[in-house]
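Fold this sequence, please.
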Amino acid sequence: MRSLGVFLPRFFLCLIAREKHPLAISLAIVFALTALPHGAVAQTSIDARIRAEKEKAAQIQARLQSKRAELGTVTLRYNDLQHQLGETNAAIGVVNGRIGDLQTQADSTQRKIDWNTVQLDAAKKSLALHDELLKRRLVNIYENGDLSYLNVLISVRSFSEFVERWEDLRLLIAANERAIRARKAAEQRVASVEADLERTRLQLAAQQEEQQQARSQLDSLASERANLVELAGQQRRHVAAQVAEMEDLSAAEEAELESLIRERERELEAQRRAAGISGGVESAGGPGSFSWPVTGTITSPFGWRSNPFGGSPEFHQGLDIAAPTGTTVAAAAGGTVIMAQWYGGYGNYILIDHGGGYSTGYGHLSAIYVSSGQTVTRGQAIGAVGSTGQSTGPHLHFEVRINGKPVDPAPRLH
């Protein structure tokens, strides 16, 4: 005798085929839904939620990547403006130094002018005195005749004394003439030096004026650039705040996705136990032991690091292993692929569930060789090294997670 479970579906199918009765169609749909295993319905619901969270997280990651790029651009502009401002301030310092040197030279020149002016005044007074004496002497000769020299000569008592006095008078007259010529020459020299110094003073004054104008222009430029630096700094802080906000949002979405993945892993583990299949990572050195997914150099370890794209430090959730683009990436352990798609900043990303709460992630791939739901074995080729998503060069981002939480892969690899 056939069971009711076999008979009823056929009965409703007959009604649908013959009568196309609405009630029959509705009852058939209800029966079909209730006839599905409970685990399959729940699994479908979780998968849908995971897909939705993946899409949401990918959108946030894309926006975050764009905003980080904007932050990088703003930071470069801020640094460039800071550099320009520094150059302007340095130029102002050079100009100030030149102005100081010119002022020192001007002060020295002015002191020389003052001293030569004193000398010139003394020479003029001496010359004026000699001129006055000469004028008086000429007037005296004109009015009374030149009796002084004659009297000196007449009063002599001998020819030899006459010759001696005549020579003395000649020397005296010559000395007076030389003194007058020397005073005139000194006056000309002092006047010439004073003229040279005055020209120098005027040149220094012109240079000082030129340097003052240059400093005024540089001061205006420095003020303008300081304002630009302040505006760029404000913009950088604003974008950095947006990046931090989006990072928090991305972290929240990732936590939600991890929660859903853990829920799915628990259900898969329950199904394995129900089917009599033992869970946990396959033996290869003990529980939680993984093979190297690719051969290369670790360029960024697990933990806190400087953000390679600028901004605040970030927590690196895996290992970055450098390798040429196209290098084969192997599964670190056997398991079930639960994600094989583009995943925001991870680029092309594969997530494998190994059971027992363990999972591994592979990011920035240039190619994906597996699909979601596929079973893979340890060492199986699952993708190729690339630089997709938020990446600075070809490498594999490798993660190990326990119950959805990232842990340091290094001590678990061998």
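The longest strand covers residues 335-342. The chain is about 65% helix and 15% strand.
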